[in-house]
Amino acid sequence: MGTIIVTGSSGFIGGNLINFLNKKNIETVGISRRESPYNTNSFNIKYIDLTVDENIDLLYEIKNVYALVHCAGESRNDSNCLNTLYFNIKSTSLLLKYAIENNIPKFIYLSSKKVLVDELYFNAYSLSKKICEDMIRYCNHKYSKNYHSLRLCNIYGKDKVITRIIPFIMECIISNKAIKTKSSLLEEIEFCSVDEVVNTIYLILMGESKSSDVMSIKYEFKISILELKNILLKLVSIIDNNSNLEGLSAVEYKLFPIVEFYCYLFKDKGF
Description:
The chain is of the alpha/beta class and about 270 residues long. The protein is built from eight helices and ten strands.
């Protein structure tokens, strides 16, 4: 196997993927706009903006590229939502052009199950993901490629950047703040661990997983925000009281080490 290029290597999934591949002694090159809080192992990284045509030329210097895993992306849907559209679509189109011109065998784009949402939740992020999926599907048809879009749900793990739903709720619990979300507390959400995402990508890279133009990650559990809050409260209480773990459900067992991680993280921050 040749070199694996991972864009978004400073992010949660990209950073974990880099570390995983390095442990497998697979050569990687990370592409990022900023330094990463996730990478504990040293690795080759290029700091570039993927929306600048000239910057893509730097990728041509990388030899023996076997695959490109495109984890980079913008997700904001506020007043800067047009930046989300621009970055996601422009970067993906330039990387596809690079992959096709260099006859790179594997291309994996991290999409989102939010492309399937109804009009109520339609936004710049889901639109950009859908457009990028269509670009990949077109390239497969036009250039006889076997490139993939992998639709993700809510990813959880020991994430040091506290913008995801689990660390957000954990911060509210530990700091005694009200939990305010854009969604209803009764809305059910699919969850998958970052380890499962990384392993799925690895199996696709190794050709050990059935693959198609568009694939969806298999979620591990699906619960409402209210149920999630109650589970996190229960696990925080167990940690605070040094209680045993007897009688925990399968989901609670999965989440216990994550809750333990955030308890110590937020306590160190003085919450």
